[in-house]
Specification:
Low-confidence stretches of chain B: none
Shape of chain B: globular
Number of helices of chain B: 12
Strand order of the largest sheet of chain A: 3-4-15-9-10-14
Number of strands of chain B: 9
Distance between the termini of chain B: 32 Å
Largest sheet of chain A: 6 strands, mixed
Number of domains of chain B: 1
Radius of gyration of chain B: 17 Å
CATH class of chain B: Alpha Beta
Radius of gyration of chain A: 20 Å
Mean pLDDT of chain A: 92
Oligomer: heterodimer
Distance between the termini of chain A: 36 Å
Low-confidence stretches of chain A: 414-430
CATH superfamily of chain B: Aldolase class I
Largest sheet of chain B: 9 strands, parallel
Helix content of chain B: 40-55%
Strand content of chain A: 15-25%
């Protein structure tokens, strides 16, 4: 094994599981009111029990295959690769799952856990609405009551998903506190859970929250990377040189990266740069935040000098969160993953580019990963490969993007968007 | 050294009553009125006074305390400023002061620096709702070296094993959360709650005070025969939110406090 390979192997061992207290390096833990501690212990015990229970694994695998449509394809984006003129780009098509994003992987896993714990009621928070839709879907499948908390700003910008959740039988509760987005929806969900903990399982949608959530969500999402790794070997005949994913709180990125931690694969997480890191209006906790406690875990977050959590901003509701999962904090610390950011504008350019060139409308969240690879793919050789997690589909975003483009007074979308995208890629390399 | 907080509970017990532990929000509605409210509660003979530190994401709090926290933050309140204010006024306050803060403001200040500043401001105890004993190791060391009591919470969901650990670690008093819920929720003082209080009391010699949803004299009276103290927060904050000015806020808080204190005598 190469020296680099050994280094990665060590890092993988350090990264593979949190310690018994739920810490990934210095991040994680359980910072919640006492009322919830027994529920977390119960969840840990249940999860430990099912982890090696073949019947649980079989049930989940069956649902992922026949209900959610796994495995998802790995698609070689030929036109996109050729346009950028460098590495061959492969898209892991999580957008093709039932409900249209990777969120269903975790929602199905956790709803099965809820059933094992005898819970009759499911709650969730949602930002873009993809986790809400996935949870509402999983709850409908199991015949469980479902309540989804969603910031009122997100309800406005993700109207399609609100309608979907309601049609699936979920109650959508608008949250009007703070920034009226994902962070506040999590607060509301935690308050509900504190109140109804006996009957209720809280399906957290990302690799955040108190232990064991970051581990459980990661495990359920790691199917993305496991499949993609195998598919890369089949289609490209080798592992990717680079793997890229967008990072809000970080579930699709962890899901993709985990299978590659011990491999000599460069991993890049792309955060939401909003209006730009220097404006202070972004959601880039790893690039521009500091460690602190939010929603039950010690992690990188955005805060002021008094320890108040500051409001995040991203055009992508699913990335609009001022914290990032504890495992990402550790992966940053040990320098196994490189974290970068792209702006709202760059993300929209990535969104349009993929739509026009490949006929795939990505979620605005996933468009961040697309936008970043547009900056460097051209400088790589044609023998090299880039694997991207296309974490969700963009139907939910089309009206928001149309409005954004109108507001930027971009006429003649084809040329101008392509031109600005090319310009962005040039300037980023300078 | 004997805990100032525990001594207050003992004094109340000698007077054959439960202790009154009101909660107000630091810097709410503003820094000036906060000090007036603090002094008013002290004048009402509150036994221990809890001062909340406003936080952007108060996940254990209901709408009333959330609102007070937001007003305080909008008026520029912070952990550092509130400690500064308490540093100036605590010599005039007879009741021991307990800070109730979420963990992140403390982490941001630095745990050691927080200990130093709290000690300097004459803070007797600290409650950190999102720092269960499992995560509190370092803080407990700092608190002990500064002679600050750490008050831990027990909840209706707490398992017997956790209960034992928590009551053993708790200094000053044990904060018994009356229900599964957030602060200010509707509370029914029923036999089950009274049984829980009695059960916790059997496990410890540290006083046991009941909080979350205690809002009137009837509830206080029902609890006083079993609990060592009652904690009243949202009901007091509500009086302030309803008041048109500082004077009527102080009147509202004082009159509710006197009513509750009057109901705490044991038969």
């Amino acid at each position: 094994m190469t020296k680099l390979g050994i280094l990665y192997k060590e890092q993988k061992q350090r990264a593979s599981t949190p310690d018994q207290n739920g810490y990934f390096g210095r991040f994680g833990g359980r910072f919640v009111p006492e009322t919830l501690m027994p529920a977390l212990e119960e969840l840990s015990e249940t999860y430990d029990g099912v982890k090696n229970d073949p019947s649980f694994g079989a049930e989940l695998t069956g649902l992922l295959k026949n209900f959610a449509g796994r495995e998802t394809p790995l698609y070689y984006a030929r036109r996109f690769s050729e346009k950028l003129g460098g590495a061959r780009i492969f898209l892991k098509r999580e957008d093709l799952t039932h409900t249209g994003a990777h969120k269903i992987n975790n929602a199905l896993g956790q709803v099965l856990l809820a059933v094992r714990m005898g819970k009759t009621r499911i709650i969730a928070e949602t930002g873009a609405g993809q986790h809400g839709v996935a949870t509402a879907t999983a709850a409908a499948l199991m015949g469980l009551e479902c309540v989804v908390y969603m910031g009122s700003l997100d309800i406005e910008r993700q109207a399609l998903n609100v309608t979907r959740m309601k049609m699936l039988g979920a109650q959508v509760v608008p949250v009007n506190d703070g920034s009226c987005s994902l962070k506040d929806a999590v607060n509301a969900a935690i308050r509900d859970w504190v109140t109804n903990v006996a009957s209720t399982h809280y399906i957290i949608g990302s690799v955040i929250g108190p232990h064991p959530y970051p581990m459980i969500v990661r495990d359920f999402q790691s199917v993305i990377g496991k499949e993609a790794r195998k598919q890369m070997l089949e289609q490209a005949g080798k592992l990717p040189d680079v793997a890229v994913a967008c990072v809000g709180a970080g579930s699709n990125a962890i899901g993709l990266f985990h299978a590659f931690l011990a491999d000599p694969v460069r991993l890049i997480g792309v955060e939401a740069g909003g209006y730009g890191l220097d404006t202070g209006r972004h959601a880039a906790s790893l690039c521009a935040g500091s460690p602190g406690v939010l929603h039950g875990a010690l992690l990188y977050l955005l805060q002021d000098e008094n320890g108040q959590i500051t409001e995040a901003h991203s055009i992508a509701a699913g990335l609009d969160y001022p914290g990032v999962g504890p495992e990402h904090g550790m992966l940053k610390d040990i320098e196994r993953v490189t974290y970068v950011s792209v702006t709202d504008q760059e993300a929209v350019q990535g969104f349009m580019e993929l739509a026009r060139i490949e006929g795939i409308i990505p979620a605005l969240e996933s468009a961040h990963a697309i936008a970043y690879l547009m900056k460097f793919a051209g400088s790589m050789s044609k023998d090299e490969t880039i694997l991207v997690c296309l974490s969700g589909r963009g139907d939910k975003d089309v009206s928001q993007v149309a409005e954004y483009l109108d507001s930027k007074r971009i006429a003649g979308l084809d040329e101008n968007v392509s031109n600005t995208a090319n310009h962005a890629s040039t300037s980023a390399e300078n | 050294m004997i805990s100032k907080i525990t001594s207050q509970f003992e004094k109340a017990a000698r007077q054959n009553r439960a202790a009154y532990v009101p909660f107000i929000m630091g810097g709410f509605p503003d820094d000036h009125a906060f000090v007036l409210l603090l002094k008013a509660l002290d004048n009402c003979s509150a036994d221990v006074i809890e001062v909340g530190i406003p936080f952007s994401d108060p996940l254990a709090d209901g709408p009333t305390i959330q609102k007070a926290g937001k007003i305080a933050l909008d008026n520029g309140a912070s952990l550092g400023k509130i400690l500064g204010t308490l540093n100036d006024v605590s010599v005039d306050i007879h009741a021991p002061i307990v800070l109730m803060t979420y963990w992140n403001p403390v982490l941001r200040m630095g745990v050691d620096e927080f200990g130093d500043k709290a000690k300097a401001a004459n803070i007797s105890g600290v409650i950190i709702p999102d720092l269960p004993p499992d995560e509190a190791g370092y803080w407990i060391k700092v608190a002990r070296s500064h002679e600050i009591d750490t008050i831990f919470m027990v909840a209706p969901t707490t398992t017997p094993k956790r209960l034992e650990t928590i009551v053993n670690l708790s200094k000053g008093f044990v904060y018994l959360v009356s229900m599964t819920g957030v602060t200010g929720s509707a509370l029914v003082v029923d036999d089950e709650l009274l049984k829980t209080v009695a059960n916790v009391k059997r496990l410890t010699s540290v006083p046991v005070a009941v909080g979350f949803g205690v809002s009137n004299s009837e509830q206080a009276a029902a609890l006083s025969n079993v609990a060592d103290g009652v904690i009243v927060g949202s009901a007091l904050i509500k009086k302030c939110l309803e008041a048109g000015d500082d004077v009527s806020a102080i009147d509202g808080v004082s009159s509710l406090s006197r009513g509750i204190i009057g109901a705490l005598g044991r038969n």
